[in-house]
Prior knowledge:
Two copies of one chain form a homodimer. With about 200 residues, the first copy, chain A, is of the alpha/beta class. The first copy, chain A, has two domains: about 5-50, Helicase, Ruva Protein, domain 3 (Orthogonal Bundle); about 75-170, Dna Topoisomerase Vi A Subunit, Chain: A, domain 2 (3-Layer(aba) Sandwich), CATH 3.40.1360.10. Chain A has eight helices and six strands, in the order αααββαβαβαβαβα. A four-stranded parallel beta sheet of chain A has the order 4-3-5-6. In chain A, α1 packs across α2. The first copy, chain A, starts with a helix and ends in a 5-residue tail after the last helix. Chains A and B meet through α1, α2, α3, β2 and α5 of A and α1, α2, α3, β2 and α4 of B.
Amino acid sequence: MVGPEIERLMQLLSRLPGLGPRSARRVALHLVEKRETLLLPLATALAAVGETVKTCAVCGNFDSIDPCSICADSRRDPSILCVVEGVGSLWAMERTGVFSGRYHVLGGLLSALDGIGPDDLGLPRLKARLADGAVREVVLATPATVEGQTTAHYIAEFLATSGIIVSALAHGVPVGGELDYLDDGTISAALRARRSY
Amino acid sequence: MVGPEIERLMQLLSRLPGLGPRSARRVALHLVEKRETLLLPLATALAAVGETVKTCAVCGNFDSIDPCSICADSRRDPSILCVVEGVGSLWAMERTGVFSGRYHVLGGLLSALDGIGPDDLGLPRLKARLADGAVREVVLATPATVEGQTTAHYIAEFLATSGIIVSALAHGVPVGGELDYLDDGTISAALRARRSY
């Protein structure tokens, strides 16, 4: 009914995170209506990202240069390395503007269920990166989920004899968080890690 | 921090209906991660729509052929014409599979607030289309909003002396609708239009 081109566009749009068939239809219609100001620029932007963006061979970040702009930035502290699950976590860390070291993107988490073992996570790559002794501290910033914490634990074990300081993000009450809406695990963790006032 | 190409992509994605800056970021990351299977096909699909899809000169529908596949389909009844606000409404009508006539897309609704008058709605185009006497009935399917109903009223007036039957979609309880959640206007309309059982 809408022609094969629009049909194909809707089908691809419905595979984007957060978009179902209905919202994909709405987005497709909006794009056709805004052909000059949105559809064509978006096609160009996608092609540009497809052509230029690559995975940094050092840390696993996405950037148009390799090594990425973070790895290439001499103002970033080379002695502190933050280990994250994926580029989304790296972006989240960068938005805070607080971390001045460099990153290591695992590209996943250990998962017995999904059959993801240590070799799938580029841990040999991490080991190679740490071999020159330049990194003094590894900050584990994997998510506070079972798989995230299992992965963090595995990496901590793996670095136990390396002489490198291993730290991890603190657990606690999120800033702005109401106790009523927090799960028991978070409250227990915040209580255990309480600080003098 | 993410490079100008990804930045530009996020900015365009955030202009899509239903996507804010956060979901645009999530979608952009997903696209970069699925470069071969999603990003490049989507760029191609958008370019294909941009190149092939045009506005039907007869009815205002979007299609890769002009006149569109509905206007060109000889099995569609040429004597009944459904007037809709936009192509989204046309798609919604077509999904029902119940309407066998043809369409006229207004491309908007009368709106004093937005300064949209009769001349902006292609009503001269509608008049020209009706001039040959082939259309026996015009079904007004504009939305059940103030602007939609004002537009329907205007078109009905405009066709009053033409000898063409003018009808409109019925108001009433939506199928599957609970009375508790319906507004008073809908319930009143459904009561006024009650039918013998």
